[in-house]
């Protein structure tokens, strides 16, 4: 692991980006920023941000691994291992969500509310029986970016026509039937 770019924030906190180089199964090497080390159910895990050649992570993907340090030899390289069990992986991902929200709050990020994973609208999958899942069937996409009070439309381009977004701000109107039951939604560009 290598240390890079030690600096201080306005609040006086040290910011130190630690990186690790991983040898993947296909023989490629990937440099990853170490986001954090988490303890979940008594085991340690590491959250890594894979970086491209420019040191950026454009897609926001995070990788999780088992993490083990030798307590008898602090100079020994830590060991990373795959998380094979889906439930274990989900527990680590949930702990990471909590870490991320806590970190954003400490940094005083300008965020009004959080919607994490499938908890965005309703309870998590485990809160419902398998035959009555009540999750939001939608995906959030950026359609405009605000800079200095001006919104600039953004579009997501895709080889799949259904995945291309309609750029710009929208207003949603809910249409009800004569009994007051929601019948449909109308989306209008502003």
Q: How confident overall, as mean pLDDT? A: 77
- End-to-end separation: 50 Å
Q: Kindly name the structural category.
A: mainly beta
Any low-confidence stretches, pLDDT <50, length ≥5? 1-15, 126-135
Strand content: 35-45%
Total beta-strand segments? 10
Indicate the radius of gyration in whole angstroms: 22 Å
Lateral arrangement of strands in the main beta sheet: 1-2-3-4-5-6
User: What is the helix fraction of residues, given as a range?
Assistant: 10-25%
Give the helix tally: 1
| CA-based shape | elongated
Major pleated sheet: 6 strands, antiparallel
Give the helices and strands as they follow along the chain. EEEEEEHEEEE
Describe this structure as you would to a colleague.
It is a single chain. With 190 residues, this protein is mainly β. Helices cover 11% and strands 36% of the residues. The chain has one helix at residues 86-106; strands at residues 2-8, 14-23, 29-40, 43-50, 63-68, 79-81, 144-147, 150-153, 170-176, 182-189. The strands form 3 sheets. It has a 6-stranded antiparallel β-sheet, with helices on one face. A two-stranded antiparallel ribbon has the order 7-8. A hairpin with a 5-residue loop joins strand 1 and strand 2 (14-23). The longest helix has 21 residues, at 86-106.
Layout of helices and strands:
Blueprint (H helix, E strand, L loop, with lengths): L1 E7 L5 E10 L5 E12 L2 E8 L12 E6 L10 E3 L4 H21 L37 E4 L2 E4 L16 E7 L5 E8 L1
Antiparallel strand pairs: 1-2, 2-3, 3-4, 4-5, 5-6, 7-8, 9-10
Give the tags:
190 residues, mainly beta, two-stranded antiparallel ribbon, disordered N terminus
